[in-house]
Amino acid sequence: MDVCVVGLGKLGLPLAVQFALKGHRVTGADIAPRVVRSVNQGVPPFPREEGLDESLKRVVAEGLLTATTDTTIAVAGAEAVVLVVPLVTAADGTPDFALLDAATDAVAAGLRRGTLVSYETTLPVGVTRGRWAPRLAAGSGLAAGADFALVFSPERVRTGRVFADLRRYPKLVGGLDAVSTRRGADFYRAVLDFDPRPDLPRPNGVWELASAEAAEFAKLAETTYRDVNIALANQFARYADRIGVDFAAVADACNSQPYSHLHRPGIAVGGHCIPVYPRLYLWNDPTATVVRAAREANLEMPGYAVGLLDGTLAGGVAGQGVLVLGASYRGGVKETAYSGVFPLVEALAAAGARPYVTDPLYGADELTALGLPPHAGEPVAAAVLQADHPEYRALGPEDLQGVRVLLDGRRCTDPARWEAPRVRRIVLGGA
């Protein structure tokens, strides 16, 4: 097939490479000339996606993947079009469709009769049918369902391990109608491979859902579940701090039977998915009190962590240098979307501390551009581990001049390394 992937970001580019690895001719479209140049040179425009470097180089060299900034022309030559363009939300949870609207208009201008269009960007329920179908029809002069197939098939992968996740998790597909669903399912069976999963109730592979709305709901439900579970774990951890119990041991005990799946507490919930998709669900269902309370509980964690540190450090954090370890929202990924680093720095400054930030993936100029104060080796009284980069696993007091307290917000450091005189390591929900 000739396939067009619109959006060559950290999910779209590996997806385009996967399609090309299956022997299909893929054109990737992106509005960023820098990204397009990099892809056409066979060089990933972002680091640390396992398997991407060699696979991208291979499919570009074989002529199976090219990139362009002209989405409309790319769509005009495609039998299937997959959109992986970002959707963000305002502070009140209102989705901002501007980027996806523009991408949809560009797709519509090149859309041909018989083409399959699949949206993989996570959406509120009803958007595929209520927004994209009429917009594509208006821009192309074609009828959705009758002249072109339209499906929603949510991405279910994690940056850093996209290729493995594409094989591991069933591909959910729900269409505008039964014909669209069947076309979408046939397409994904032709471009993906799946690992055997005896733990699933049916064979791993493409799973057809009854409608686009069902597929949209499935993605919001699975991600919102994680946010709610993390919030519960965070509240349990805060209670464990008050009573002097190690919550990690409690969670292990609870999860030893099959009906408990307690997640781990953490200093912040960041990234493009978990902080955002519950807001999209709330946009559909504003009466969901559990979802709203969980989101608020998770937003409180950076401030709570600073309070915990302030109560542990002799004399408090006021007037002290405090180093935040990790700008990324999670370890191994160079991405700061909704990262806990921002509320942590804000809370430290509000408490009177002098906050600094360091990250093995970011240079001082990059941190400054993000509005974060880079660390230039100044002595610090305390440190807060915010992102669990692998580089921090062997961290010890000797690596941080003057440090007296480490708050490990991800439980990734070795406790044995911190059994030093006059130095203390604390964790969320620790004894």
Name the descriptors.
single chain; 431 residues; alpha/beta; eight-stranded mixed beta sheet; globular
Give an overview of the whole structure.
The N and C termini lie far apart (58 Å). α13 packs across α14 (341-350). The chain has helices at 12-21, 33-40, 52-61, 71-76, 98-110, 127-140, 162-168, 178-191, 212-243, 247-254, 277-284, 289-299, 301-312, 341-350, 364-369, and strands at residues 2-6, 25-29, 65-68, 80-83, 88-89, 95-96, 116-119, 149-152, 171-175, 206-208, 321-325, 354-358, 382-385, 405-408, 424-427. The protein contains 15 helices and 15 strands.
Mean pLDDT over all positions: 97
Run of helices and strands: EHEHHEHEEEHEHEHEHEHHHHHEHEHEEE
Strand order across the biggest sheet?
Answer: 3-2-1-4-7-8-9-10
Q: Give the CA-based shape.
A: globular
Number of DSSP helices?
15
Low-confidence stretches: none
CA-atom Rg in angstroms = 23 Å
Helix content estimate: 25-40%
Class based on secondary structure composition and strand pairing: alpha/beta
Task: Give the termini distance in whole angstroms.
Answer: 58 Å
The number of distinct β-strands equals 15
The fraction of residues assigned to DSSP E strands is 5-15%
